[in-house]
Amino acid sequence: MNRDAIINQLKIDEGFTASAFWDNKQWTYGYGCCAPGQSSTISEETATILLGRRVDQAIQEFHEIFADQPMDDVRQGALVNMVFNLGKAGVEGFHNMVAAIKADNWDEAADQAMDSLWYRQLKNSGGAPGRSNRIVEELRKGATV
Question: CATH for 3-144?
């Protein structure tokens, strides 16, 4: 697994914001990390350290979900990105996608990811072609993307 590539992609996908903003259910700042409150600020250096810790947590949770499921670095990175964004429970909620991955059926896994609110909300975010579009294609094609 290429941790540095995952961090670099998340920096693009999340973007850096020094001041806290309301993001769905929480105050967020830095690179998509939970802020302690509305008036919180963070430096880019500190945000990068926090991002690294959150990526390490997402990698651990990825391994808890997918254990020894063989897959290439591209698919691992896509799934860690999803775990970072949705949390372990959120990804586990994609029951059909997880089952398809465990059955090594990547086309079905990509189709199941597309059939979700997550996909619809993120398909136009994170720059062209959009975060969820890119992740779905990475799941579908793996290292051939």
Answer: 1.10.530.40
15-26 pLDDT, tens digit per residue, is: 999 999 998 788
Closest CA to 70 of 25, 106, 34: 106
Q: What is the DSSP string of 12-59?
A: HHH--EEEEEEETTEEEEETTEE-SSTT-B--HHHHHHHHHHHHHHHH
pTM: 0.89
Q: How far apart, in whole angstroms, are the C-alpha atoms of residue 74 and residue 79?
A: 9
As a whole number of angstroms, the distance between CA 7 and CA 93 comes to: 24
121 CB-near residues (< 8 Å, 6+ apart) = 132
Every domain of the chain and the residues it spans: 3-144
